[in-house]
Amino acid sequence: MEEINGQEIGEKVVRVLKTIYDPEIPVDIYELGLIYDVMVSTDADVKILMTLTSPNCPVAETLPVEVEEKVKTLKEVNDAEVEITFDPPWSKDLMSEEAKLELGML
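Structure tokens predicted for PaaD-like protein:
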């Protein structure tokens, strides 16, 4: 059986996450700072800990499902699960410099 390279899978997962955009902000969810953690198990199961810009975000129901489905399309990934947390709550400080620049905040 092929050995699982968690870091390699993690990097591929991040590339997928960078293709998913917040519908209200023209920046991907990774650069927005919505992704808190990407964990890859020895079985190539991926768990993503993420937040939303607010608890009553209009995509609260659909965005986690979209993230799970897109990550599951990676052939290296066995399964994917998204956990939503609001601890710590999202703030503009979590955004990358690139995202702040894109939104004219720098």
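The chain has three helices and three strands.
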